[in-house]
Design brief:
Length: about 290
């Protein structure tokens, strides 16, 4: 299988923080969400993939090429989408397009015009007058118009209204339909990931907790709820992760549904978890591990 993105044993050391080793892979035609609490290393991971920081170890291959050696060629086919202004503020879309088009070998003017129309972006306004959502749309139009095969986004839906968020998520699903592109994005909005992501990579305190198919995750784990008297026996058998005590007893995550059923059937309640519940309980489990 040829991966669009292949990260192996990636490490980055900062004073007081160490990321990795992280390993995960993304195939064409799929969307991967990167989740983790604040400060867990999501932006650091994205910066390393984009070649904006130098890792302390590991390797990153993009489109099968070694990122450390061939970043110039790779960049032609990466679209980094974010709302921060990496454009000239005083320029209009048309003026900005002339600058950007020159950077990209595969720039497609007519495709760009189509996206500008489709996103209803104002052609006469200066970019500094754009809202956050407009900047995001513009950034996405640029990425799509140079035929990026890997689209990377850092928190693309945060701060956007629900209507545009929903439009953006639909667009992401549309982008991967040709099965040639892949999307990698970080988000705190787990419901967005639940809707569009095929794979979820979860990091906590710089450590990789999992990088798995979303469907497998949602199938494997269950939320277990029970009275206080059951907590100890379940914990003794190592069946619970990230226990949260409440007025009725406890709530936790289990990956061993069969064992819980076998031993405690009828005594506990088991529900399908949301991605947010998986993340919260796992983060708790890590914190108190
Ligand atoms: N240039 C830097 N120098 C030193 N430490 C850094 C640098 N950049 C990031 N860090 C540290 O690395 C850790 C991870 O930061 P990072 O921005 O990757 O987290 P994040 O998961 O993206 O967080 P958030 O969700 O809050 O955006 C933090 O402890 C941060 O202080």
């Amino acid at each position: 299988m040829s991966y669009i993105l292949d990260v192996k044993d990636l490490r980055k050391e900062y004073k007081g923080f160490s990321l990795g080793p992280l390993s995960f892979q993304l195939e064409p035609g799929y969307i991967m969400g990167l989740i983790g609490p604040n400060g867990s290393g999501k932006s650091t991971t994205i910066k390393a993939i984009l070649g904006l920081i130098r890792p302390n170890g590991g390797s990153i291959r993009i489109f099968g090429k070694d990122q450390a050696k061939e970043m110039q060629a790779i960049k032609q086919q990466i679209g980094f989408v974010y709302d921060q202004n990496h454009f000239y503020d005083e320029f209009t879309i048309g003026e900005m397009k002339k600058v950007i088009a020159g950077f990209y070998e595969y720039w497609d003017n007519s495709l760009f015009s189509q996206y500008i129309d489709r996103f209803n972006l104002p052609v006469r306004k200066k970019i500094k007058e754009f809202s956050k959502g407009m900047k995001m749309k513009f950034s996405l139009a640029v990425a799509l118009s140079h035929h990026a095969r890997l689209i990377i986004m850092d928190e693309p839906t945060s701060g956007l209204d629900p209507i545009f968020r929903s439009e953006l998520l639909d667009l992401l699903l549309e982008i991967i339909q040709d099965e040639e592109k892949a999307i990698f994005f970080s988000s705190h909005i787990t419901s967005d990931l639940e809707r569009v992501a095929d794979y979820i990579t979860f990091i906590h305190n710089g450590n990789l907790i999992f990088s798995e198919s979303k469907d497998d995750l949602l199938d494997t784990y269950r939320i277990v709820k029970g009275g206080p008297d059951l907590l100890e026996p379940l914990q003794e058998e190592g069946l619970l992760t990230g226990v949260i005590n409440n007025q009725f007893g406890f709530e936790a995550l289990t990956a061993d549904v069969a064992a819980v059923n076998d031993r405690f059937k009828g005594q506990v309640i088991m529900d399908k978890p949301s991605l947010e519940q998986i993340m919260v309980h796992m983060a708790r489990g890590e914190q108190y591990a």
